[in-house]
Amino acid sequence: MKAKTFSLISLCLLLLACNSNKKEQSAEENYQPAEEIAIDPVKRGEYLVNSVGCHDCHTPKKFTEHGMELDSSRLLSGHPTDEELPPYDAETAKGYILFSMGLTSATGPWGTSFAANLTPDDTGIGSWTEAQFMTAIRKGLYKGLEGSRPLLPPMPWEQYRNLNDDDLKAIFAYLKSLPPVENLVHAPIPPQMN
Q: What residues contact 81, with CB distance under 8 A and at least 6 apart?
């Protein structure tokens, strides 16, 4: 009996070890050497965009048999122009922040904000300069223009402004290298007064 129990435990440990190796191999397949990322600003920007959560809000999602996935045909193109927001209970919304199903719009005390198009199309950042991008992130200003409105929640520019200049420039270089996606994002909706 002890031998069978020991064999069963050994088999379980062996299977667990085999599964652990598969996860490590999968992570290794996605690994990019730091030297490669450090040398190429576009690769560095891609690494940063994928690490700091830009896709969470700026990329539309689609639902598949595997759950929510990024819509690869609209990477970083912001809230879809043709997506209508469903009605919501204003009383409930007073105590919550509401996100659209694709996470590209948010409603809270500031009203409703829509994730911007970050692709190099004219409806996105196509005409932006690097200086505008730096101003948008460092000062939290719409389109990086002095005197413009502040960036609205949930955009975490207060955290992103702590990235160094080289990192922000790399992010901008990566965004400018993307395929342009025409998508004119809605203007924010002011809070409903009740």
A: 183, 184, 185, 186
Taking a C-beta distance cutoff of 8 angstroms, is the pair 59, 70 a contact? yes
189's tokens: 């909706």
State the maximum Cα–Cα separation within the chain, in Å, rounded to a whole number: 79
> 154 preceded by cis ω (within 30°)?
yes
Cβ-in-10-Å burial (0-12, 13-18, 19+) of 96 comes to exposed
Do 110 and 152 contact (CB within 8 A), yes or no?
A: yes
The 10s digit of each residue's pLDDT in 31-75 is: 566 666 668 999 999 999 999 999 999 999 999 998 999 999 999
Go through 139-171 and write b for each residue having 16 or more CB atoms within 10 A of its CB, e for each that does not. ebbeebeeeeeebbebbebeebeebeeebbbbb
